Write the structure tokens for this entry.
Amino acid sequence: MFRSYSPPGQPARRCGYLWNSGIDFSLCLQCRSQTKVYGTRYGIKVVTATHSDALDQRKCGNFMSKNRINLYKYAAPANFYPLAGKLIPLFAVPSAILFILGMYVGFFVAPTDAVQGESYRILFIHVPAAWMGMFLYVLMAIYAGVGWAFNARLASMMATAISPTGAIFTFISLVTGSLWGRPAWGVWWVWDARLTSTLILLFLYIGFISLQSSIDDARRADRAGAVLALVGVINVPIIYFSVQWWNSLHQGATITKNSFKMAPSMAAAMLILLGACWLYSIAVVLVRVRYIIREREQEAPWLAEATA
Amino acid sequence: MGLIRYFATDKYAVYIWGSYGVTFLLLGAEVLMLLKRKRNLTRGHSPKLESRDNRLETSFQEIR
């Protein structure tokens, strides 16, 4: 949805794909089909023209060439919104089951660690949370980049929807790491390479969220956020390799391609909780992206039908 | 539930329960915030959009 507010007498201006005359109609720059005017607000004509309207009506030649139709169908919020609604329970319910199963295996099946005693059980949630923080950042940057490069607003909305969940997982990994470090290392926090770079990851998430919420125009906020997200991606390999590159207090990788230095029941608890975190993230992001679509596309006719 | 009682007396119990407590508190808070957002949307009012519209309105008044 491109909303443009054109005061009377102001020259026409271009926004996104749409050339907005500012008076009573807009053209989609890709298919040149005329789109609609939905009304006035504050005495200013609000011209709302959607590319997805053209998609829905199968008018837009660029997007509707025969071999591309399936690939791009769900790039239109109008098509993605109901699909996401159907997918949410498919991820939310298994996520809850896996959380319960993972907690059971972690607390009742996995044996006590010979060196660390019981406190190592914190790692069952610490490690998945830290992985999720990094995975979700990369995913967010990919979506933000796609949204920026191809002017795909749904991809940008996905990036916005992922960011709070990623920030929460990064915060959880820092807090649980601190709670583990106190009994294991004797300190709550050290300015170690891995800990510091994870803290920077949290700041990148917070920066992304606050940058986007400080810009009123949604598409401009998407582009600004995409720059920050893509620049920040450099931090993810730094976190990952920090334990190899620098002499770190944090231990190295336990699970690598060639070795698996872990009791099976301990590994099972961790991997089950990782699966639970993934499914949880997908469910929460789908819920949030639906709300973002509803907020941004308020005036679209398809939304009134979908939420009626 | 013998294990639970064991954890209650373990010297690391506060760290373990603290970790899982923080985790599920934060994930629960995220879900609650989404439910609140849904409630606002279904009532047809969105604080974020309203404040944005108010700012846009003032900026147009300034242009005039």
Notes: Chain B touches chain A through 32 residues (CB under 8 Å). The helical segments of chain B are 2-9, 13-42, 47-63.
